[in-house]
Amino acid sequence: MTSAAIYARVSSARQKKDETIGSQTAALREHAAQARLDVPAEWVFEDEGHSGATLVRPALEALRDLVAQGCVDVVLCYSPDRLARKFAYQALLLEEFARAGVRAEFVKGPRGDTPEDQLLVQFQGMFAEYEKAQLAERYRRGKAYRARAGSVNVLSGAPFGYRYVRKTDLAGAAYEIIGHEAALVAEMFRRYADDGASIADLARWLTGQGAPTRTGKHRWDRSVVWAMQRDARAEPRRPPARPLGAACGQDHRPAAGGVAGDPGPGHRGPGHLRPGPAAAGR
Protein backbone atom coordinates (compact mmCIF):
# COMPACT_ATOMS: atom_id res chain seq x y z
CA MET A 1 0.00 0.00 0.00
CA THR A 2 1.26 3.48 -0.86
CA SER A 3 2.45 5.41 2.19
CA ALA A 4 1.62 9.07 2.68
CA ALA A 5 2.38 11.90 5.07
CA ILE A 6 0.03 14.79 5.86
CA TYR A 7 1.09 18.41 6.23
CA ALA A 8 -1.26 21.14 7.50
CA ARG A 9 -0.59 24.74 8.50
CA VAL A 10 -2.35 27.82 9.89
CA SER A 11 -0.52 31.10 10.31
CA SER A 12 -2.42 33.17 12.88
CA ALA A 13 -3.01 32.70 16.59
CA ARG A 14 -6.73 33.18 15.99
CA GLN A 15 -6.81 30.30 13.48
CA LYS A 16 -4.92 28.21 16.01
CA LYS A 17 -7.44 29.08 18.72
CA ASP A 18 -10.38 28.29 16.41
CA GLU A 19 -8.74 24.94 15.57
CA THR A 20 -9.10 25.49 11.83
CA ILE A 21 -6.08 23.28 11.32
CA GLY A 22 -8.26 20.36 12.42
CA SER A 23 -10.53 20.85 9.41
CA GLN A 24 -7.50 20.71 7.11
CA THR A 25 -6.26 17.50 8.68
CA ALA A 26 -9.73 15.92 8.51
CA ALA A 27 -10.04 16.75 4.80
CA LEU A 28 -6.58 15.33 4.15
CA ARG A 29 -7.37 12.11 6.04
CA GLU A 30 -10.58 11.75 4.01
CA HIS A 31 -8.64 12.29 0.78
CA ALA A 32 -6.07 9.68 1.84
CA ALA A 33 -8.83 7.15 2.58
CA GLN A 34 -10.46 7.72 -0.81
CA ALA A 35 -7.09 7.35 -2.58
CA ARG A 36 -6.25 4.21 -0.51
CA LEU A 37 -3.18 5.80 1.00
CA ASP A 38 -1.71 4.60 4.29
CA VAL A 39 -1.05 7.47 6.72
CA PRO A 40 0.68 6.42 9.98
CA ALA A 41 -0.38 8.48 13.00
CA GLU A 42 3.16 9.81 13.48
CA TRP A 43 3.25 11.07 9.89
CA VAL A 44 0.71 13.83 10.45
CA PHE A 45 2.61 17.11 10.60
CA GLU A 46 0.85 20.29 11.76
CA ASP A 47 2.32 23.80 12.02
CA GLU A 48 0.02 25.93 14.16
CA GLY A 49 0.64 29.66 14.20
CA HIS A 50 3.53 29.62 11.72
CA SER A 51 3.79 31.89 8.69
CA GLY A 52 3.99 30.38 5.24
CA ALA A 53 6.44 33.13 4.27
CA THR A 54 9.29 31.23 5.93
CA LEU A 55 10.64 27.69 5.71
CA VAL A 56 11.65 27.63 9.37
CA ARG A 57 8.67 25.68 10.74
CA PRO A 58 8.98 22.75 13.18
CA ALA A 59 6.54 20.40 11.48
CA LEU A 60 7.81 21.25 8.00
CA GLU A 61 11.37 20.53 9.12
CA ALA A 62 10.28 17.13 10.42
CA LEU A 63 8.43 16.39 7.17
CA ARG A 64 11.47 17.30 5.08
CA ASP A 65 13.63 15.01 7.21
CA LEU A 66 11.15 12.18 6.64
CA VAL A 67 11.13 12.79 2.89
CA ALA A 68 14.94 12.82 2.78
CA GLN A 69 14.99 9.38 4.42
CA GLY A 70 12.97 7.97 1.50
CA CYS A 71 10.30 6.52 3.79
CA VAL A 72 7.24 8.14 2.23
CA ASP A 73 5.67 8.00 -1.23
CA VAL A 74 3.19 10.89 -1.16
CA VAL A 75 2.94 14.19 0.72
CA LEU A 76 -0.63 15.40 1.14
CA CYS A 77 -1.35 19.10 1.60
CA TYR A 78 -4.65 20.97 1.50
CA SER A 79 -3.51 23.60 -1.02
CA PRO A 80 -0.21 24.97 -2.36
CA ASP A 81 -0.37 28.07 -0.15
CA ARG A 82 -0.55 25.85 2.95
CA LEU A 83 2.79 24.38 1.92
CA ALA A 84 4.34 27.84 1.43
CA ARG A 85 3.16 31.37 0.73
CA LYS A 86 6.13 32.31 -1.43
CA PHE A 87 6.28 30.87 -4.92
CA ALA A 88 10.05 30.35 -4.69
CA TYR A 89 9.60 28.28 -1.50
CA GLN A 90 6.85 26.21 -3.10
CA ALA A 91 9.10 25.47 -6.06
CA LEU A 92 12.00 24.60 -3.75
CA LEU A 93 9.93 22.16 -1.67
CA LEU A 94 8.26 20.50 -4.65
CA GLU A 95 11.64 20.04 -6.33
CA GLU A 96 13.09 18.64 -3.09
CA PHE A 97 10.21 16.15 -2.84
CA ALA A 98 10.59 15.16 -6.50
CA ARG A 99 14.33 14.49 -6.09
CA ALA A 100 13.50 12.10 -3.26
CA GLY A 101 10.91 10.33 -5.42
CA VAL A 102 7.98 11.75 -3.44
CA ARG A 103 4.82 13.04 -5.06
CA ALA A 104 2.97 16.06 -3.67
CA GLU A 105 -0.84 16.04 -3.82
CA PHE A 106 -3.21 18.89 -3.01
CA VAL A 107 -6.87 18.55 -2.08
CA LYS A 108 -7.54 22.03 -3.49
CA GLY A 109 -5.23 22.17 -6.46
CA PRO A 110 -3.72 20.19 -9.32
CA ARG A 111 -3.24 16.49 -8.63
CA GLY A 112 -1.13 15.36 -11.55
CA ASP A 113 2.48 15.70 -12.71
CA THR A 114 1.70 16.99 -16.19
CA PRO A 115 3.27 20.27 -17.38
CA GLU A 116 -0.17 21.86 -17.18
CA ASP A 117 -0.55 20.86 -13.53
CA GLN A 118 2.90 22.15 -12.67
CA LEU A 119 2.11 25.44 -14.41
CA LEU A 120 -1.10 25.74 -12.38
CA VAL A 121 0.81 25.17 -9.14
CA GLN A 122 3.22 27.94 -10.12
CA PHE A 123 0.38 30.34 -10.88
CA GLN A 124 -1.29 29.53 -7.56
CA GLY A 125 1.99 30.16 -5.77
CA MET A 126 2.45 33.53 -7.43
CA PHE A 127 -1.12 34.58 -6.66
CA ALA A 128 -0.75 33.48 -3.02
CA GLU A 129 2.44 35.53 -2.68
CA TYR A 130 0.75 38.55 -4.29
CA GLU A 131 -2.26 38.21 -1.97
CA LYS A 132 -0.02 38.11 1.10
CA ALA A 133 1.90 41.19 -0.03
CA GLN A 134 -1.34 43.04 -0.74
CA LEU A 135 -2.79 42.20 2.69
CA ALA A 136 0.44 43.26 4.40
CA GLU A 137 0.42 46.60 2.60
CA ARG A 138 -3.24 47.25 3.50
CA TYR A 139 -2.51 46.41 7.12
CA ARG A 140 0.53 48.72 7.15
CA ARG A 141 -1.43 51.63 5.66
CA GLY A 142 -4.34 51.16 8.04
CA LYS A 143 -2.00 50.95 11.01
CA ALA A 144 -0.18 54.12 9.94
CA TYR A 145 -3.48 55.97 9.47
CA ARG A 146 -4.73 55.01 12.94
CA ALA A 147 -1.39 56.00 14.46
CA ARG A 148 -1.56 59.45 12.84
CA ALA A 149 -5.11 59.78 14.18
CA GLY A 150 -3.77 59.27 17.71
CA SER A 151 -4.97 55.71 18.28
CA VAL A 152 -2.85 53.70 20.70
CA ASN A 153 -4.34 50.41 19.46
CA VAL A 154 -1.73 50.20 16.74
CA LEU A 155 1.16 50.36 19.21
CA SER A 156 2.70 47.47 21.04
CA GLY A 157 2.31 47.12 24.81
CA ALA A 158 2.17 50.19 27.02
CA PRO A 159 5.58 51.73 27.76
CA PHE A 160 6.98 51.79 31.28
CA GLY A 161 5.04 54.37 33.28
CA TYR A 162 1.73 53.65 31.59
CA ARG A 163 -1.08 51.10 31.77
CA TYR A 164 -2.94 50.13 28.60
CA VAL A 165 -6.70 50.66 28.91
CA ARG A 166 -8.72 48.66 26.42
CA LYS A 167 -11.25 50.38 24.24
CA THR A 168 -14.93 50.17 25.12
CA ASP A 169 -18.18 51.08 23.40
CA LEU A 170 -17.93 54.52 24.99
CA ALA A 171 -14.24 55.33 24.56
CA GLY A 172 -11.22 54.31 22.56
CA ALA A 173 -8.11 52.64 23.92
CA ALA A 174 -5.83 54.86 25.98
CA TYR A 175 -2.77 54.97 28.19
CA GLU A 176 -3.23 55.55 31.91
CA ILE A 177 -0.31 56.85 33.96
CA ILE A 178 0.93 54.55 36.74
CA GLY A 179 2.00 56.88 39.55
CA HIS A 180 4.94 55.01 41.08
CA GLU A 181 6.39 54.06 37.68
CA ALA A 182 5.94 57.62 36.40
CA ALA A 183 7.85 58.93 39.41
CA LEU A 184 10.76 56.62 38.59
CA VAL A 185 10.76 57.73 34.96
CA ALA A 186 10.74 61.42 35.96
CA GLU A 187 13.61 60.89 38.41
CA MET A 188 15.55 58.91 35.82
CA PHE A 189 15.34 61.75 33.31
CA ARG A 190 16.24 64.29 36.00
CA ARG A 191 19.38 62.33 36.86
CA TYR A 192 20.27 62.03 33.19
CA ALA A 193 19.58 65.65 32.21
CA ASP A 194 20.57 67.53 35.36
CA ASP A 195 23.16 65.30 37.06
CA GLY A 196 24.79 63.93 33.90
CA ALA A 197 24.25 60.30 34.92
CA SER A 198 25.30 57.73 32.33
CA ILE A 199 23.08 55.00 30.94
CA ALA A 200 24.97 52.44 33.04
CA ASP A 201 24.46 54.58 36.17
CA LEU A 202 20.73 54.75 35.51
CA ALA A 203 20.49 51.00 34.93
CA ARG A 204 22.24 50.35 38.27
CA TRP A 205 20.02 52.90 40.02
CA LEU A 206 16.80 51.36 38.69
CA THR A 207 18.02 47.90 39.67
CA GLY A 208 18.82 49.20 43.15
CA GLN A 209 15.29 50.61 43.47
CA GLY A 210 13.94 47.07 43.19
CA ALA A 211 11.44 48.14 40.54
CA PRO A 212 10.69 45.35 38.03
CA THR A 213 10.94 46.02 34.32
CA ARG A 214 7.88 45.79 32.11
CA THR A 215 8.54 42.05 31.68
CA GLY A 216 9.02 41.46 35.42
CA LYS A 217 12.80 41.30 35.55
CA HIS A 218 14.57 42.89 38.52
CA ARG A 219 17.80 43.66 36.69
CA TRP A 220 17.72 46.62 34.31
CA ASP A 221 19.88 46.40 31.18
CA ARG A 222 21.46 49.48 29.64
CA SER A 223 19.74 48.77 26.33
CA VAL A 224 16.34 48.98 28.06
CA VAL A 225 17.16 52.35 29.65
CA TRP A 226 18.45 53.64 26.32
CA ALA A 227 15.26 52.53 24.58
CA MET A 228 13.19 54.30 27.24
CA GLN A 229 14.96 57.57 26.47
CA ARG A 230 14.47 57.25 22.74
CA ASP A 231 10.80 56.24 22.84
CA ALA A 232 8.65 59.08 21.48
CA ARG A 233 5.23 57.66 22.29
CA ALA A 234 4.67 60.33 24.93
CA GLU A 235 5.24 63.16 22.44
CA PRO A 236 1.55 64.07 21.86
CA ARG A 237 1.13 64.99 25.55
CA ARG A 238 4.65 66.33 26.10
CA PRO A 239 5.30 69.90 27.27
CA PRO A 240 8.20 71.76 25.64
CA ALA A 241 10.96 70.39 27.85
CA ARG A 242 10.21 67.28 29.87
CA PRO A 243 7.02 65.33 29.21
CA LEU A 244 6.29 63.39 32.33
CA GLY A 245 7.10 66.07 34.87
CA ALA A 246 3.62 67.57 34.72
CA ALA A 247 2.07 64.14 35.06
CA CYS A 248 4.21 63.51 38.13
CA GLY A 249 3.55 66.85 39.77
CA GLN A 250 6.79 68.57 38.83
CA ASP A 251 6.73 72.34 38.35
CA HIS A 252 7.34 73.51 34.80
CA ARG A 253 6.77 77.20 35.40
CA PRO A 254 9.43 79.39 33.82
CA ALA A 255 12.29 80.66 35.92
CA ALA A 256 12.88 84.39 36.10
CA GLY A 257 13.75 85.67 32.66
CA GLY A 258 13.16 82.26 31.12
CA VAL A 259 10.42 80.54 29.18
CA ALA A 260 8.20 77.63 30.13
CA GLY A 261 10.06 74.39 29.86
CA ASP A 262 13.47 76.03 29.44
CA PRO A 263 15.84 74.05 31.68
CA GLY A 264 18.49 76.74 31.53
CA PRO A 265 22.08 76.82 30.27
CA GLY A 266 24.11 73.64 30.18
CA HIS A 267 21.08 71.43 29.58
CA ARG A 268 21.62 68.80 26.92
CA GLY A 269 18.40 69.83 25.16
CA PRO A 270 15.51 67.87 23.70
CA GLY A 271 17.53 67.05 20.60
CA HIS A 272 19.80 64.92 22.76
CA LEU A 273 17.24 63.68 25.25
CA ARG A 274 13.83 62.34 24.27
CA PRO A 275 12.04 62.20 27.61
CA GLY A 276 8.87 60.34 28.30
CA PRO A 277 7.83 56.99 29.72
CA ALA A 278 9.38 54.75 27.20
CA ALA A 279 9.80 51.32 25.81
CA ALA A 280 8.73 48.46 27.97
CA GLY A 281 11.57 47.02 30.02
CA ARG A 282 12.74 43.70 28.89
Provide an overview of this structure.
The chain is α/β, with parallel strands linked by helices and 282 residues long. The protein has 2 domains: 4-141, Rossmann fold, CATH 3.40.50.1390; 179-282, no CATH class. It is 43% helix and 10% strand. The strands form 2 sheets. A 4-stranded parallel β-sheet has the order 2-1-3-4, with helices on both faces. A hairpin with an 8-residue loop joins strand 5 (162-165) and strand 6 (174-177). Helix 5 runs antiparallel to helix 6 and helix 8 (199-208) crosses helix 9 (222-230). The longest helix is centred in the middle third of the chain and has 34 residues, at 115-148. The chain starts with a strand and ends in a 35-residue tail after the last helix. Mean pLDDT is 76; it is low at 234-280.
Number of individual domains: 2
CATH superfamily of the largest domain: Resolvase, N-terminal catalytic domain
Strand percent estimate: 5-15%
Number of E-type strands:
6
At CATH level 2, the architecture of the largest domain is 3-Layer(aba) Sandwich
- For the largest sheet, list the strands in their spatial order: 2-1-3-4
